[in-house]
Amino acid sequence: MKHLKRMDESILVCVYYGLNGERLIRRGHKLATLLDCPLYILTVDAKAVDAFDAEKSGYIESWTDLCKELEVEEFIVRDDEKQPIQKVIGEIAREKNITQIIVGQSAQSRWEEITKGSFLNVLLKEVPFVDFHIVAVKRPIEEEAHGTYEKGVRAYVMQDLENYKIVFTCPKSVSIEGIFFKEIGTDFDNGIFKFSYQNKMHEVRIKEGFVTNPHLIHSIYGISNV
């Protein structure tokens, strides 16, 4: 029998692409557990889902899995959205009877604007009936500095005789588009190449510009060449 949660409280977590999304979701889950109330996760993008690059698709997939694991009430993806963010937040807040909203203070995302007075005032006017939690998070540049890889860049993997190599301009031949994360401190193209296939994220290792495990590409596509 499904547990009945209290309905006088309801939490909405707003996430945007970056390394802090999971932390915000888990923070919202912790608060929702303490209050024994429904939890909703919202992300907004002006592009349609089928136009997302590999990195964005990866975040969506990761957050979807996390929401299932935490038994979140609903993960809401508002893609192809033309309205201002505050309008979307207001719509969801009214639709779901939200009483508390959690957003992150992130240097790279649009949500950082919420920490600035002008946008916050607009948001408070749009959603005056909720409590806001502004969660301080590390700036992405700080996280990257302590990480293993540089910021991801768009790249392509194409067949080169019996191997696959990575290039950074769209080739005329058939190729796989994705995001390349270069290892910090190397002069060579060493790192990880991530790409989306059938709504799933995959990754292959790159060493000196070439894929080290081409069998993975073969198994994904079911053929010997892309």
UniProtKB/TrEMBL annotation:
The lineage of its organism: Bacteria, Bacillati, Bacillota, Bacilli, Bacillales. InterPro entries: Histidine_kinase_KdpD (IPR052023), Rossmann-like_a/b/a_fold (IPR014729). This is Universal stress protein family protein. It comes from the Bacteria. GO terms for molecular function: phosphorelay sensor kinase activity. Signal peptide: none annotated. GO terms for cellular component: plasma membrane.
